[in-house]
Amino acid sequence: MSGSKILVVDDEADITELISLYMEREGYHVHTADNGEDAVLFADSYRPDLIILDVQLKQMDGFDVCKRIREVSDVPILFVSCKNDDTDIIHGLTVGGDDYMTKPFSPSQLVARVKAHLRRQSVNDRQNPYDRAAGEVLRFDGLVIDLPGRTVHVQGKEVFLSTKEFELLVRLAKTPNRAFALDDLYTIVWGHDSMGDTRTLMVHVSNLRKKIEPDPANPTYILTVRGVGYKFNIKEGNTHVQR
């Protein structure tokens, strides 16, 4: 949203300048940092609405920066990196990143993703995604999803989910046994087109399974639908919506 505060963290001055230029054209207020230590400090003092974070930084890499920020904030974090290896993408999203773009990228593409994340964040702040105002609590065998409280309990114990993990779980659980195509599910949760790269979605599903499934290697809640995508699996009668 116009007027939102963006923190751009990159140690390449020309990249920082280019990103800042495009963000400011959209009406965003931009603050920059060129190393990890400053990024953590600025994230705390500047309180940005979104962070664009390079992976390769001085003093502290982007992954460690993300982990430090996640200790105190759920601000959307968009990783940018010249590393296109699946291992790096998985690691970035596992430590708390919401999205991951590889360099070189189109500035207009970056702007589109930033707008999408800010829209989603704005909806969350207004407390009304997925009918949360209705006070829904989704109950399944061993799993309770409290929408207004944004909490999830597995076998009676609360588990922490990132913003995107929670949104993904809610989207699947509110329409149980419906198979979602990868691209469609990505667009619904991330708010923009996947452009054919659904690795971000798949990593989030993997992380989600590790947190809610009794046996992540043999999931019972979030199932893979071969050739399609994913679905939330329940048996007949095994759901209750409390209002």
TrEMBL record:
<dbReference type="GO" id="GO:0000976">
    <property type="term" value="F:transcription cis-regulatory region binding"/>
</dbReference>
<dbReference type="InterPro" id="IPR001789">
    <property type="entry name" value="Sig_transdc_resp-reg_receiver"/>
</dbReference>
<feature type="DNA-binding region" description="OmpR/PhoB-type">
    <location>
        <begin position="135"/>
        <end position="234"/>
    </location>
</feature>
<dbReference type="InterPro" id="IPR036388">
    <property type="entry name" value="WH-like_DNA-bd_sf"/>
</dbReference>
<dbReference type="Pfam" id="PF00072">
    <property type="entry name" value="Response_reg"/>
</dbReference>
<dbReference type="GO" id="GO:0000156">
    <property type="term" value="F:phosphorelay response regulator activity"/>
</dbReference>
<keyword id="KW-0597">Phosphoprotein</keyword>
<keyword id="KW-0902">Two-component regulatory system</keyword>
<keyword id="KW-0804">Transcription</keyword>
<protein>
    <submittedName>
        <fullName>Response regulator</fullName>
    </submittedName>
</protein>
<dbReference type="InterPro" id="IPR016032">
    <property type="entry name" value="Sig_transdc_resp-reg_C-effctor"/>
</dbReference>
<keyword id="KW-0805">Transcription regulation</keyword>
<feature type="domain" description="Response regulatory">
    <location>
        <begin position="5"/>
        <end position="118"/>
    </location>
</feature>
<feature type="modified residue" description="4-aspartylphosphate">
    <location>
        <position position="54"/>
    </location>
</feature>
<dbReference type="GO" id="GO:0006355">
    <property type="term" value="P:regulation of DNA-templated transcription"/>
</dbReference>
<dbReference type="GO" id="GO:0032993">
    <property type="term" value="C:protein-DNA complex"/>
</dbReference>
<dbReference type="InterPro" id="IPR001867">
    <property type="entry name" value="OmpR/PhoB-type_DNA-bd"/>
</dbReference>
<dbReference type="InterPro" id="IPR039420">
    <property type="entry name" value="WalR-like"/>
</dbReference>
<keyword id="KW-0238">DNA-binding</keyword>
<feature type="domain" description="OmpR/PhoB-type">
    <location>
        <begin position="135"/>
        <end position="234"/>
    </location>
</feature>
<dbReference type="InterPro" id="IPR011006">
    <property type="entry name" value="CheY-like_superfamily"/>
</dbReference>
<dbReference type="Pfam" id="PF00486">
    <property type="entry name" value="Trans_reg_C"/>
</dbReference>
<dbReference type="GO" id="GO:0005829">
    <property type="term" value="C:cytosol"/>
</dbReference>
